[in-house]
């Protein structure tokens, strides 16, 4: 019963959100409540929802202050020199811009944190995309895929770290075998950037800045207004802002301060430095409040979904049912089954729920078929490109807010490329013996 309810809830939720019959916030909130009532959990719904909200509260605070922090720096013109340099290098060629975006995102994503990657990559590159009239969904896609592979498969990244810890593995044992697969994933990202950039080149041609200035009709009014607000620029404070940004990133990577608190401090310092007048500070907060509220609301709604999904034990039921229905004849291919099922599983579950709740069950079943724990762990991270399309991923919700697009738009645009990346990595893992 719980297995059927869980699967039905995910299908209904995905359909209503993708078809835009419900907004993501409404779908994340209403659908799990309805299915919990159907399952007879009426008396526990409030407690489960509150548990879910408690889990996501730190992420909500992080995203709120991170959006405000980078919004202030963008207003002050911190990334303008980078944009001008990129324009000189790429000369308005959408293919080069898309590939450059992928290189930047993959480099930044090596720190293992998706939120940081999106904040830096989108903040630096989005004004360039808007100025040239390029589709921001291309930037969102390459940034998301970069995080899914560079952060998702390295031992210091979240998913791999959880898999290693859950199955008590040695980090080297896990990582060395998956390096060729990771390199294939990186090639997939560059290929994706090339293909999407080529489509934009066909649509726009190679654009000069003068031509781009004449394309304002293709750019949102908000973006044009932002570009035009030269009175907000603080070129004399650029080096100070850069030092502040580097300091925040270093402290983040070292883990000296809780990340939400770190970005709260960073936002306050950036505001005081660049806009010492209290009225100016208030205006900057209001200017970025729309993005911040949208993302934070999504995070809390995702917390309700997760709280009910976990609290009703639908997650456990689906996992146990999956293990039970795998035929004996597929036993020797069990790691491939894990790799393929990791795509839908990690889409509907948080990484914690999957790697600490489901993966140990799969690993135990795999042992009976002769699969090693390292093979199961490697297989479990191959669905990360699909996972990062989930509304339950905090960094993806940040990405949605930063590119000012609907979550459903990003999912539709990026899904095929994410699926290709996952399937290519699975094939390479099989060929290189990483998972079988």
Low-confidence stretches are: 212-228
What's the gyration radius in Å?
22 Å
Strand content: under 5%
The portion of residues assigned to helices is over 70%
Helix segment tally: 21
How would you portray this structure in words?
The protein has helices at 2-18, 24-38, 45-75, 80-90, 94-108, 114-132, 136-151, 158-166, 171-204, 209-213, 221-228, 238-254, 259-274, 278-311, 314-325, 334-348, 351-368, 373-380, 384-387, 394-403, 407-432. Mean pLDDT is 81; it is low at 212-228. The chain is an all-alpha fold and 436 residues long. The protein is globular, with a radius of gyration of 22 Å. The chain starts with a helix and ends with a helix.
Which structural traits does this protein have?
single chain, 436 residues, mainly alpha, 21 helices
């Amino acid at each position: 019963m719980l297995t059927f309810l869980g699967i039905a809830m995910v299908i209904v939720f995905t359909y209503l959100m993708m078809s835009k019959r419900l907004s993501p916030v409404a779908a994340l909130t209403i659908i799990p409540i309805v299915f919990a009532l159907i399952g007879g959990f009426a008396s526990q719904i409030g407690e489960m929802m509150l548990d879910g909200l408690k889990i996501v509260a730190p992420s909500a605070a992080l995203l709120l202050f991170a959006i405000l922090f980078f919004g202030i720096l963008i207003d002050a013109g911190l990334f303008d020199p980078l944009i001008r340099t990129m324009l000189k290098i790429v000369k308005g060629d959408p293919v080069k811009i898309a590939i450059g975006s992928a290189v930047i995102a993959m480099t930044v994503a090596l720190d293992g944190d998706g939120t940081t990657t999106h904040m830096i990559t989108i903040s630096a590159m989005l004004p360039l995309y808007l100025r040239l009239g390029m589709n921001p969904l291309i930037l969102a896609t390459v940034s998301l895929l970069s995080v899914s592979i560079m952060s998702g498969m390295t031992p210091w990244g979240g998913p791999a770290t959880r898999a290693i810890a859950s199955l008590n593995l040695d980090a080297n044992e896990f990582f060395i075998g998956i390096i060729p697969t990771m390199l294939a994933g990186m090639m997939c990202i560059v290929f994706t950037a090339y293909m999407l950039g080529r489509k934009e080149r066909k649509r726009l041609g190679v654009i000069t800045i003068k031509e781009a200035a004449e394309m304002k009709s293709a750019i949102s009014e908000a973006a044009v207004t932002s570009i035009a607000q030269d009175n907000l620029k603080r070129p004399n404070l650029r080096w100070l802002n850069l030092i502040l940004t580097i300091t925040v990133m270093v402290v983040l990577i070292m883990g000296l301060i809780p990340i939400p608190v770190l970005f709260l401090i960073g936002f306050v310092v950036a505001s005081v430095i660049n806009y010492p007048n209290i009225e100016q500070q208030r205006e900057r907060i209001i200017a970025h409040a729309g993005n911040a509220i949208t993302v934070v609301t999504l995070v809390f709604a995702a917390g309700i979904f997760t709280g009910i999904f976990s609290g009703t034990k639908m997650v456990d039921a689906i996992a146990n049912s999956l293990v039970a229905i795998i035929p004996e004849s597929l036993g020797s291919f069990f790691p491939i089954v894990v790799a393929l099922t990791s795509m839908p599983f990690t889409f509907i579950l948080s990484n914690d729920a999957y790697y600490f709740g489901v993966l140990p069950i799969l690993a135990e079943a795999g042992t009976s078929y002769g699969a090693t724990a390292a093979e199961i762990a490697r297989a479990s991270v191959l669905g990360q490109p699909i996972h990062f399309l989930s509304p339950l991923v905090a960094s993806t919700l940040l990405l949605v807010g930063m590119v000012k697009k609907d979550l459903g738009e990003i999912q539709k645009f990026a899904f095929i490329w994410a699926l290709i990346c996952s399937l290519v990595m699975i094939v390479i893992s099989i060929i290189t013996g990483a998972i079988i």
